[in-house]
Design brief:
By secondary structure, the chain is of the alpha/beta class. The chain folds into two domains: 4-120, no CATH class; 124-401, Alpha-Beta Barrel (TIM Barrel). It has 14 helices and 14 strands. It has helices at 13-23, 27-33, 49-61, 88-98, 105-120, 161-174, 195-212, 224-233, 250-257, 283-300, 320-328, 348-354, 363-376, 386-401; strands at residues 4-7, 40-48, 65-67, 79-86, 124-127, 132-135, 140-146, 178-182, 217-220, 237-240, 260-264, 308-311, 340-343, 379-383. Strands 12-11-10-9-8-7-14-13 form an eight-stranded parallel sheet. It has a four-stranded antiparallel sheet with strand order 1-2-4-3, with helices on both faces. Helix 11 crosses helix 12. The two termini are 39 Å apart.
Length: 402
Amino acid sequence: MNRRVRFLALEDEHECRVHLERIGVDPYGVRAMLPKTRHLKILVEGVPCKVANILKQEMLSLGGDAAVARQSVSCSIPETDCLLMGTRKQLDRLLGKLRSQPFGMEELGRAIEDLIRNVEAPLAELVTARRRLVVGDRTLVMGILNVTPDSFSDGGRYYTPAEAVARGLEMAAEGADLIDVGGESSRPGADPVPEDEELRRIIPVVEGLAAGTDVPLSIDTTKAAVARAALAAGAEIINDISAMTFDRDMAKVAAETGAGVILMHMRGRPKDMQAGDLAYEDLLGEIIGFLRERIAAAGEAGIPEEALAVDPGIGFGKTAGQNLTILKRLSEFRSLGRPVVVGVSRKSFLGAVTGETEPAERREETSAAVALAAALCPCIVRVHDVAAGRKAAAVGDAVRKA
């Protein structure tokens, strides 16, 4: 039984009601279960009805509950999602019982146990060919260094190699834990950049920074050849907004070089990602499901899991409201057991809240979002303003650890 399980960070009654109704719980059951959703909530997707009925009976016997579709009792449907609701102690006792149950429930129990371990882990690590980065003692700050003429916020500002290297060294002095160099804009509507032009933009910058600082460098690209050249020039992390789907050779490059890899969720491509239908049936479920699949694909390509980080892709094929929901429920990404990268800096969804139309003027909004992300989840925040980002992250870390 290979079931997808994930943690749900649902805090208010409306969100819990929506999930119970999505499962297909009887209306009376929805009313009865809402008070129980204040406990830990673990969603198991696609459970055979006979298994779901056993899970519900076991949880009820322990003082917890399990939400299942109303038709599951009669087994008139083949399967149902199952939302386990209980205290940590009740879930531990359930795991003990599953070890002796039939129908593949022992394997399901191990999956739930792994999930709880991921969610409760205070630290996560990202391993590159050169070092081991610990995420969780504090939030790590990644400085954004766009070597482009058309990025949405600072396009053209650091376009020459000298300007870009100087800004990167300034970021290092401000306390950047990582510096992310990009030669192709991924703003909504952006056109792709030819490979030779992207290489011309970024290689001198990576070489200059590698010679001037020991801060780990990442290369923001979807092209395998660009990644390979940047890694040879001194970078050690590939930040791929396509999660290695645009260029099938990217996984080979990562596996051969030992690079760290950031896998991001995006629907479509930058040129069209904000056009058309942006609806999701289950926003967090679809994003986490995609990232889980990309983690598995990376493993099949020979990339160790410890070399991976995940990024929910705030601003990439999502509405302003959806971006806020991702930020609110950021802790759900801990289900994946990998460091979480969060890119909120100066983005339009923040302007939708405050009315600020100029990206460069969204500094206060960015600091608020960074502090919130750090408070919710051990993560790496990707920012334009490193000094301000470190202060905001420090406040969020203090709240999370309080």
